[in-house]
Design goal:
Mean pLDDT: 85
Strand content: 5-15%
Shape: globular
Order of helices and strands: HHHEEEHEHEHHH
Radius of gyration: 19 Å
Length: 215
């Protein structure tokens, strides 16, 4: 009896590991419209912030290397409070002198006034001098949020608001074609590091579908 139960447990573990062990099928060539549409579809599904954080982190890594503007990227875990570690954002970008040059706050919902006030406060209280804060969001929820963001300029903080997918559309057109599959690989690596198995599987499926739908 015990042996039979043990065997069933082992079989269950084996099936689970097999489901988690796969390679992302990245197309050799990826059109920018296809990449953008895939990101829109992937980010449109609720994920509790997991997907946009992984995607935004990967974007910053590829942009940093492609434009030689960031030497190092650090990203918070989804359940880590930024303030607990003195981090002014979810993603921190550093230059060659290891100075933080940009903090990115990632939201899976429209930006609110409370978001702006909370994030700008963290930026001012950070242990480093920070002059650039970027909100990566799917939209603007309150016009007062933009007004508050603009008001930070006089205090020395540049606050930017951008849609994640629009950021890709605007910047990757200037990068070599190889940057598009590089972004897909970077997103997969970020998901792997975070152990988000359901979101990893969804990204894997998205790559398979992209190969069929291009351009």
């Amino acid at each position: 009896m015990i042996e039979a139960v043990f065997r069933r447990c082992l079989a269950s573990f084996a099936r689970r590991l097999a489901d988690q062990a796969f390679r992302y099928q990245i197309p050799v060539r990826v059109s920018l419209p296809a990449l953008s549409e895939t990101l829109v579809a992937y980010l449109s599904e609720p994920s509790g912030g997991h997907r946009p954080l992984a995607v935004a982190t990967a974007i910053m890594r590829v942009l940093g290397e492609g434009f030689s503007i960031f030497a190092r990227i650090e990203a918070q875990g989804l359940n880590e409070a930024d303030a607990a570690g003195g981090a002014p954002g979810d993603v921190m970008c550093y230059d060659d002198d290891d100075r933080m040059v940009l903090a990115v706050e990632v939201k899976d919902r429209a930006l609110t006034l409370a978001d702006v006030r909370s994030s700008t406060r963290k930026a001012r209280e950070a242990p480093v001098v920070l002059t650039n804060l970027l909100f990566a969001v799917p939209g603007i929820g309150e016009s007062a949020a933009i007004t508050a963001a603009k008001g930070e300029w006089a205090a020395g903080l540049n606050v930017y608001v951008v849609d994640i997918v629009e950021l890709v559309r605007a910047t990757f057109v200037l990068l070599p074609e190889e940057s598009r599959p590089a972004l897909q690989r970077a997103i997969g690596a970020e998901l792997d590091n975070r152990g988000d198995h359901a979101h990893r599987r969804a990204w894997h499926t998205a790559q398979l579908n992209m190969g069929e739908d291009q351009p």
